[in-house]
Design brief:
By secondary structure, the chain is of the alpha+beta class. It has helices at about 1-5, 20-45, 205-215, 230-240, 240-250, and strands at about 50, 60-65, 70-75, 80-85, 100-105, 110, 120, 125-130, 140-145, 150, 160, 165-170, 180-185. The chain has two domains: about 50-185, Trefoil (Acidic Fibroblast Growth Factor, subunit A); about 200-250, no CATH class. Residues about 5-30 have low confidence and may be disordered.
Amino acid sequence: MSEYDKVRTKKLVLKGEKQKSKKRKHKKQGRDEKTTSEKDDDDTIRHGGWKKTTNITDITGTVAIEFGNSTYVKALDNGLFTLGAPHDEGEGPHPEEILTAFPINETKIALKSGYGKYIGVDKKGVVVGRSDAVGPMEQWEPVFQDGKSAILGNTSCFVSVTDDDDIVCSKLTAGPNEYVHIRSMAQEVDDPNKDMPQEELGSIEEIEVNYVRKFQKFQDKKLKISKNKISELKKAKETGIFHETLLDRRSKMKADRYCK
């Protein structure tokens, strides 16, 4: 626990509906929309201020992944994940159940645990949080359909919870054990970059320097920046391998503490 302290839907139109009911329908529609809004607000209140997301653009910054009712994915200090204990009404997720999300492109996101590690999938299909950079296996695609949502991994499998409450990514189709609610803290965000990792702020060139400063050993107290063309990073960002390429460039400079 100490590590965490640091760290529109349209109304269905029926064929044959009488014209004279049109005015009444509009009033009813307004009441339906208000009721839906009220239900959403009630749901958020029951979950301690954590709002259910319905679009990938909502998934940024502080989030939690809920399976079932008020039970959230929980990070363990060994890099694995399990399903936490049920929460009382009005209670939000615990610190170890809170993740950080940031967008990779229009369809994919990356997730980081409270231990500062990116979440991915290992060769056995187990969800793990042990990576210091975002590669293909650390990219996730939230899927929203028919009022349900699930998380698709790079292996074309969905995130799921087992009978033992372990979190895996091994099902090719989504069913009850794969349906989730991705919740975000319901609050106004003045700065669109407020919840972005500090290293991700700035231009591509500045981002590379940020990561070098963070991980370089600095034996000679000089920054060692890759001399390869910056266009390599621009292409990598477009194809979704930006962080993997950053790590590779640092590795070739033989100055990164995580590279041998």
